[in-house]
């Protein structure tokens, strides 16, 4: 019997598949450019430094319950604990017979945290705001927390990634705010850390997609609901952050004492929450966009 040759895939399908494969690389480039932009703005300019430092110093207030929660969260965010989480995530990927996800998880954690430590060690912080302090850009705690949360989203089954992403976003936001409250980092340090993790994670997803091809499947309903929650959160807090930063900048340059230190701190908190929500929106979209026909394991 004569074998029938397989029908070639339509050009439109091939185009969608190529676009699906290359999208993570585009996200990685955009995130890297964003991190450079954050550094130029909040480290390389006097006004950016002043606004960032105002948020840092504005968090100096005491509230027993809030302080206890933030302190416990920071204490739990240690490399040993995060290493256990990442190892468990990699093991979960192996148990699911997804060695590619296990390798991608290891790549994400190692590259993101190594890059952050290298940047922190070699970047200079010029004294432009009159507040002498060593370079803290980017945040190691935010990088560690975000990379662990990203890994968990990556290795969980596709239908649960949105829910895990929402929980991870909450955890990362609390850790990031806690670092500012403890005066370890400025909000700009956190924004850069999130972008670095997103860039490294996007490269990892690109490697996974190279191994698997096919048309993209639609998001499950739980993931779509999570995306809606994160989108609303990002929109509201981003608006508050922009208005707040403009007010703080005006206070720093033209109208001293226009806003309080507490206001500047809360503006930084809004910016961190907005950046966290936006980052996880992109990450859930990337990790949930697996092909309908998975490659043979």
Feature tags:
297 residues, mainly alpha, 10 helices, transmembrane, PAP2/HPO, membrane, Membrane-associated phospholipid phosphatase
Domains counted in the coordinates: how many? Answer: 1
Strand percent estimate: under 5%
- The beta-strand count equals 0
| Low-pLDDT segments | 292-297
Number of helices: 10
Mean of pLDDT:
85
| Oligomeric description of these chains | single chain
- The SSE order reads HHHHHHHHHH
Class inferred from helices and paired strands? mainly alpha
Biggest pleated sheet:
none
Distance between the termini: 30 Å
Helicity range: over 70%
- The geometry reads as globular
Task: Provide a quick synopsis of the model.
This protein is mostly helical and 297 residues long. 75% of the residues lie in helices and 0% in strands.
3D architecture notes:
By secondary structure, the chain is mostly helical. It has one domain (about 20-290). Helix content is about 75%, strand content about 0%. It contains 10 helices and no strands. The chain has helices at about 10-40, 45-60, 65-75, 80-95, 100-120, 140-155, 160-180, 185-210, 220-255, 260-290. α7 (about 160-180) packs parallel to α9 (about 220-255), α7 (about 160-180) runs antiparallel to α10 (about 260-290) and α8 (about 185-210) packs parallel to α10 (about 260-290). The radius of gyration is 21 Å and the shape is globular. The two termini are about 30 Å apart. The model is unreliable at about 290-295 (pLDDT under 50).
